[in-house]
């Protein structure tokens, strides 16, 4: 006797709803990470009653901890995620962990509890990021991956933008607990969406042509039977990271993610105190600076992904890194004694705000490029040998590598930027990162792909709905 269909199984297991729930999870994770930035100094100085001279050190440590835990947790999470075809439960557990950790961080009156809550947030957020991205790439073919990830990144960017902006505004206008109620509500909504979702492969969802046709990866039909039998697949599965890291395209992609993460996390660790010292700006003005940094991504992520699918990654990404170098240098000019014309009472605020917006605009050429580069390589290798990374593929492990690079940047960014800012000043800090941008521009142009490798006799989808 055929098992009856679950309530609403068509839309609950549709690709549209799955992508929606995944992007909401990514939104929640990025919203939560950015939310803490403008409110953290208040928590340290007012709620924990720590001397303001220690604020930078605590901010650097707490933000770096998030990156360190991502490095440690990502490969472990990815290993188990790639052992199961159903990723709904890992996502649900990740969201629950974020909720508990956030409640602990918000309610704490002790340093120890603050760090414990931050640990929970970091590990759970890493799980949501790795598993969520793996779900997206599992259901989208390489030719349309840039566009799909670009659309998802639009929602993610909304979290990045709104996190610090909402935190700064809510804290200043309505108070501490009104501010923290926002991320807790966002997480609760996402947990409900995760409970409703039915992923294909779920035992409660009957197999049918409509569901499998929508969600089946388009890489599989392109693979030949011979490819599946080439090589020792067991050995390949055991050496996933060796296979990937021996490819210079992957290393270049991870370097892209690492430096971009270092720069943005460096901003998060140093901007609040730098702007307070130079321009005497509070949490609301600081949140608006992060808004200027992120707003171009909200409008241009999808267009950037579409361009990458058609024009490739090499030239746009290399150009982006090259142009970011002088912009980073300019960010260090306002408030520096060597440039009196850019002081707080002259042109400094206007120059800083304009440069932040320009940085956010140009960074669209490099943001997400490393992740897409790694994904293209994984799909190419699986196309050549479908069993090279195991029966469920290597999507989670590939994104664990990206997450590890991101986590390394999130750890190094606050450490390097915070230390340099305290010892040699903000101008020298931005100049150092500008030099790294120039170096990576050359590396990118040498090793990045122009376009994703496509299988022989492949036919592009007729419409986005068939992608």
TrEMBL record:
SUPFAM superfamilies: MFS general substrate transporter. It holds the Pfam family MFS_1. The chain crosses the membrane at residues 17-44, 56-77, 89-109, 115-136, 148-171, 177-197, 250-267, 279-306, 318-335, 355-378, 399-420, 426-448. Residues 18-454 form the Major facilitator superfamily (MFS) profile domain. GO terms for cellular component: membrane. Residues 211-221 have a biased composition (Polar residues). The keyword Mitochondrion does not apply. Keywords: Membrane, Transmembrane, Transmembrane helix, Transport. It is found in: Membrane. GO terms for molecular function: transmembrane transporter activity. PROSITE patterns: MFS. It comes from the Eukaryota. It is a multi-pass membrane protein. Residues 207-235 are annotated as: Disordered. Its main location: membrane. CDD domains: MFS_MdtG_SLC18_like. This is MFS general substrate transporter.
């Amino acid at each position: 006797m055929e098992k009856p269909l679950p309530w609403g199984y068509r839309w609950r297991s549709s690709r549209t709803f799955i992508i929606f729930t995944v992007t909401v999870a990514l939104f929640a994770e990025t919203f939560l990470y950015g939310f803490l930035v403008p409110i953290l100094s208040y928590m340290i100085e007012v709620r924990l009653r720590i001397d303001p001279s220690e604020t930078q050190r605590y901010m650097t440590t707490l933000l770096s901890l998030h990156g360190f835990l991502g490095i440690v947790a990502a490969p472990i999470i990815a290993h188990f995620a790639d052992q199961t075809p159903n990723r709904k439960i890992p996502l649900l557990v990740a969201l629950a962990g974020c909720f508990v950790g956030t409640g602990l961080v918000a309610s704490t009156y002790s340093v120890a509890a603050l760090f414990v809550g931050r640990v929970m947030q970091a590990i759970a957020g890493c799980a949501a990021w790795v598993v969520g991205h793996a779900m997206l790439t599992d259901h989208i073919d390489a030719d349309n991956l840039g566009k799909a990830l670009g659309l998802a990144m639009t929602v993610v960017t909304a979290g990045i933008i709104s996190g610090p902006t909402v935190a700064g505004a809510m804290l200043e206008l309505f108070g501490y607990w009104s501010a923290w109620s926002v991320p807790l509500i966002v997480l609760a909504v996402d947990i409900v969406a995760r409970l409703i979702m039915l992923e294909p492969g779920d035992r409660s969802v009957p197999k049918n042509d409509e569901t499998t046709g929508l969600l089946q990866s388009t890489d599989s039909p392109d693979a030949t039977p011979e490819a599946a039998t080439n090589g020792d697949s067991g050995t390949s599965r055991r050496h996933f990271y060796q296979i990937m890291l021996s490819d210079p395209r992957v290393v270049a992609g991870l370097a892209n993610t690492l430096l971009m993460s270092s720069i943005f996390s460096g901003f998060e660790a140093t901007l609040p105190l730098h702007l307070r010292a130079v321009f005497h700006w509070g949490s609301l003005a600081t949140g608006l600076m992060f808004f200027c940094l992120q707003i171009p991504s909200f409008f241009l992520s999808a267009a950037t992904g579409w361009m990458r699918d058609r024009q490739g990654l090499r030239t746009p990404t290399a150009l982006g890194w090259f142009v970011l170098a002088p912009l980073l240098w300019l960010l260090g000019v306002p408030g520096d004694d060597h440039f009196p014309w850019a002081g707080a009472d002259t042109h400094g605020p206007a120059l800083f705000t304009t440069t932040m917006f320009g940085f956010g605009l140009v960074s669209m050429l490099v943001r997400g490029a490393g992740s897409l580069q790694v994904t293209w390589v994984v799909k190419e290798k699986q196309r050549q040998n479908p069993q090279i990374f195991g029966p469920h593929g290597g999507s989670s492990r590939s994104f664990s590598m990206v997450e590890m690079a991101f986590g390394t940047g999130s750890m190094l960014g606050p450490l390097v930027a915070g230390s340099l800012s305290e010892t040699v000043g903000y101008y020298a800090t931005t100049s150092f990162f500008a030099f790294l941008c120039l170096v990576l521009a050359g590396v990118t142009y040498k090793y990045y792909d122009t376009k994703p490798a496509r299988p022989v006799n492949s036919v592009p989808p007729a419409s986005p709905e068939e992608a």
